[in-house]
Amino acid sequence: MDILEFVMQVVLGITSLLLTLLILLHKGRGGGLSDMFGGGMSSAMGSSGLAERNLNRFTVVLALVWFVSIVALGLITKFQGI
User: Fold this and answer.
1) Cα separation, 72 vs 5, whole angstroms
2) What confidence score (pLDDT) does residue 41 get?
3) CA-CA distance, 17 to 11, in Å (whole number)?
4) How many Å apart are CA 13 and CA 62, to the nearest integer?
5) Residue 37 has what DSSP assignment?
């Protein structure tokens, strides 16, 4: 295993954990599991509009980094034997 593959695996692991955490931080928009964990208690406990927008932006950027790392690992694995 070369250093690039190791770095990409570390990036994938870190972004996977952070992406899971950021998705769980989002405000619940309806019923389901978000109500089970207290997401439907009151709207005053939710984040403000600006904070929610920044959380959305950060989640999208992190999801793109996660996707690129998966594609890069796939390409490294495919062309490693060549």
Assistant:
1) 9
2) 56
3) 10
4) 12
5) T
Which pLDDT tens digit goes with each residue over 21-49? 999 998 776 655 556 666 555 555 555 68
Domain boundary assignment for the chain: 3-30+45-79
> How many CA atoms lie within 13 Å of 68's alpha carbon, on the beta-carbon side?
7
Rounded distance between C-alpha atoms, residue 20 and residue 77, angstroms = 25
- Burial class of residue 12 in the structure, from the number of CB atoms within 10 Å of its CB (0-12 exposed, 13-18 middle, 19+ buried): middle
> Taking the alpha carbons of 56, 51, 21, 3 in that order, is the dihedral positive or negative?
positive
Residues comprising the chain, all counted: 82
